[in-house]
Amino acid sequence: MSDNADQPSPGVAGPPPAAPGQPGHDPVAWHGWLMHQQELRRRQAHADAVAKAAASMGGRVRGAEAAPIRTAALVAVLAAGLATAVFLGDGMGPGLLIAALPAMVAAYVSARAAGRTARPWTVLWALGCVALLGIPALRDSAWPSTLAILAAVLLAGLALHGSRRWPGVLLSPLGFLSTAVSGVGWAWAGVRARGGRGRERWLPVAKASVVAVGLLLVFGALFASADAAFADLLGGLAPDVSLGEGPLRILLFGFGAVLALAGARTAAAPHRWDRFEVAPGKARSRVEWGLPLIVLNLLFAGFIAVQLAVLFGGYDKVLESTGLTYAEYARQGFWQLLWATVFVLGVIALALRWAPRGAAGDRRFVRVVLGVLCLLTLVVVASAVRRMDLYVDAYGLTRLRLSVVVVELWLGLVIVLLMAAGVTGGRWLARGVVGSAAVTVLAFGLVSPDGVIAGSNVARYQREGKIDLAYARELSADAAPALDRLPEPQRSCALIGIRDELRDAGGAPWYATSLGEYRARGVLRERPVTVSLGECRTLGADGIRRSAPTTG
């Protein structure tokens, strides 16, 4: 082995010790030098790997290292878990918002500790999240409440991540999946760090809390046994938790605490989803890009011309020539027009990706072609809504018919936002579309969709003497005030389903009782159901599109 082969690699400050075979060789110093060299190479490899990861897309998206969790955030996380276990074990209602408030406090404390400041969009998303989480407190129906919760998660992701562009808008909710895992380790590290120090700060608080709880239990029990009115008030306010529900409550506690930790960890070090880069497509020439879209515009214009001819020529002539019934004509066209609206949005997204953009004239050309397409699409939206209106007049309003009309109207609003972005610039478009969706979901929950459906069908009964009582029995308690306007026995036949559902649910506590359920119980308490389901069947109330019997 040559001397050069034994010589350590260069790049380290200071002269190397004598190698084996050289004068003055010290085996101990030589071995230490080699170990030092190996450690330096390992550190350099680690630094290179970190730099490579930071330069990659995943490294750029990953947030900075989170600061240690604050004590106030830990307390808020525990409060969120406890509130989830106490208030959500009996169902949704005001308890959902009560359980979410401590989680919001934990996120706020963590964001402030990280030096983040609230921006206008962040405040707007947070307020929208609170409003959406209040929908289950208002509505007994599950479908508007579910939509509201999903929309609240989306707004929470935007508020905590601060996303502005389409990648961030679409990926922000996914950030909670990773922070739910890393948040547990983050909290555990904070607990361990506080285990050996700061005891003089938190131990007195813990002792005082235990004493306060003991005093509340002792004197609360004494006052409750001394006064029946106070006992009734206390029983209505205090959660009813039995020992048999222990596993469920423990599971809910863990679920609520993990969700709160995910929010707090995200607020402390959010992912930067906006750093995802989506390269624009290759710009096309005006002919290659514009010809297909101009042909599509001509097709839309021809369809709209036919719709205007039908509008002024009357439906009877169209029905006679096509052989369709009144309802078939309305229903057949709606779904196709709904899909046409969806496809147009996809066409516009792809067209913008490959649009010519070499000169100012190219940009004006793109705006004109896509603007005409958007205007024609708005007419298609109006035609689709009109067709569904005709179908509802013939057969009544249902959940499916109401929901698809709302979706079609929201798609029309998105078209309007696209037109506005074409004029003013599209930096705000992603947030505008999300905001419009959240407002639509919030309005959908506030108007009580089941109440709207019941009100529409009751009005149709008053006009035509027809109502589908079997479908009315499937509606939630939100429909009770509207169904209460029916005459007997139709009223009782429509309310039987709500009565049975409330009877099976029993006396839910206040934090699990929605406003819709509260009103329905009041309606049934003032005017109970007077007929049985068997008597309703003799009226034909269980069939679809049965005519209600004439009374009097």
TrEMBL record:
The chain crosses the membrane at residues 67-88, 95-115, 121-138, 169-189, 210-230, 250-268, 289-313, 333-352, 364-385, 400-421, 428-447. Pfam families: DUF4153. Coiled coil: none annotated. Residues 1-29 are annotated as: Disordered. Keywords: Membrane, Transmembrane, Transmembrane helix. InterPro entries: DUF4153 (IPR025291). The keyword Manganese does not apply. This is DUF4173 domain-containing protein.
